[in-house]
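Data deposition worksheet. Section B asks for the primary sequence of the deposited chain exactly as it was used as input, without tags or linkers unless they were present during the calculation. Section C holds the resulting structure in token form. Section D is free text for depositor observations; keep each observation to a single sentence. Incomplete worksheets are returned to the depositor.
Section A, Depositor: J.P.
Section B:
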Amino acid sequence: MAVPKNFRTNININPSKIGVAEREELLAAIKDKGTYLPKGVGIEDMDESFIKFVESNLEITLDGKKVPVLFLTIQRWTEYTKTWEFTDQYKDIKLPFITIVRKPDIQVGENQAGLWNIPGRRTYTYIKVPTFDGVRKGIDLYKVPQPTSVNIVYEVRLFTERMNDVNVYHAKVQSTFQSRQAYIGVKGHPMPITLGNISDESNIDDFENRRFYIQLFEMTLLGYLLNEDEFEVIPTINRVLNIVEDNKNKGK
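Section C:
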């Protein structure tokens, strides 16, 4: 059967929201995918993205087993010592493993090349979105504040009993940062990570106790904070659409 000319197959039977309802829907979409506004960023978001970076980009496999990565704080270290799952039959800690510790003293950031923010917590236009409620056409201004730059320092340590494992992880880290920095995506925001101090904390000189290597890699995330509560949606220009019908059959 032939399809009639000008036959439409893409009819949208779901009416779209307009006016205030449309703006509320766009604001609600901040917490979902595909939004006009950027996602807010907090310190926890940067922690989560950095952990994923270490687990994926700095992942190593030794003797056919993936080396576990542990994110530790003072509280979590106490929990791990009570319920440590990486132990052998003698209840000794099983090596190798990798730990991540974030330094709590977060510093003023360098993400903006050392430039300071404009005082007053002003908001700036991010995007202009056209609107139409069936009668009036307008434009909504989506405004966001200037992000607050922060430097977050992470200490990544490899614990192992073999020098060859140290060589493997050094090669992995150095190749990842061969361009001086690596990038991660934090809720859609690209942020660089730089490799800083590399040091050795091994206890191989203590012959009476268990000997193992500890390699420290200090990495700095040049991130920024962005608070969703400070986002603004401001309706601005409104234009009324007037339709005039002319009767051409009108007499003299």
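Section D:
The helical segments are 20-28, 43-57, 74-82, 163-176.
The chain has one domain: 20-113+122-240.
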